[in-house]
């Protein structure tokens, strides 16, 4: 099975937004393990360096690179794709993953909401735009958008975050209809609660919730991404929800 996975992923060029922590980092590790050439980016140098070093230490042959950049900044996105062109020359897979949590619209002010929308939604749109320009030249590619079940549960006191995740849901559906004729797949994954920095509980509390089947690990979502990416050309995994076993909503 591992050889089949490796042959499906090996040599593919991958860009992962928010690839320095959580789901993005676990996905970078898993795809690099199976032979992909992976580029990650995030906002913080320390997290980037730590992620790159850890992956390289555990997978000495890994083709892994990174850059400090903010997906909410248009000029940073241009820098990322310029580096991608220089290093890889092409793009096979985009994992749109960078995101920030936020609570109610009654918290903060315009500039705070604007930054969340730019990160959680506009950043997805901008990276997809740049990715498709490159993918359509080869009439193939795959965009995986990481959303959230909050788009459906629409919990109270999370209106800003919910708005962005509902936007990703609609964006993914429409984008797939545009991109499929270009040979490009678009998939949306909506996880439930995942043990990442976005969760406000202490590390001990999150570990307990994982053990009690109320929370997922980031590597669970990485495995789902891998599953989507290795499907044959005739098969599209359009939408996937993944929730902890005992998460009831």
Beta-strand share of residues: 15-25%
Biggest beta sheet attributes: 7 strands, parallel
Question: Rg, please?
Answer: 17 Å
Order of SSEs, N→C?
HEHEHEHEHEHHEEHEHE
> What does the overall shape look like?
globular
CATH topology: Rossmann fold
Number of domains: 1
CATH homologous superfamily?
A: NAD(P)-binding Rossmann-like Domain
Class by SSE composition:
alpha/beta
| Highest CATH level, the class | Alpha Beta
Number of continuous helical runs: 9
Which sequence of strands runs across the widest sheet?
3-2-1-4-5-6-9
Account of the protein in words:
The chain is of the alpha/beta class and 249 residues long. The chain has one domain (2-242): NAD(P)-binding Rossmann-like Domain (Rossmann fold, 3-Layer(aba) Sandwich), CATH 3.40.50. Helix content is 48%, strand content 17%. The protein has 9 helices and 9 strands. The strands form 2 sheets. Strands 3-2-1-4-5-6-9 form a 7-stranded parallel β-sheet, sandwiched between helices. A two-stranded parallel ribbon has the order 7-8. Strand 2 (37-42), helix 3 (45-58) and strand 3 (63-68) form a beta-alpha-beta unit. Helix 2 crosses helix 9 (218-229) and helix 5 (110-135) packs parallel to helix 7. The radius of gyration is 17 Å and the shape is globular. The two termini are 34 Å apart.
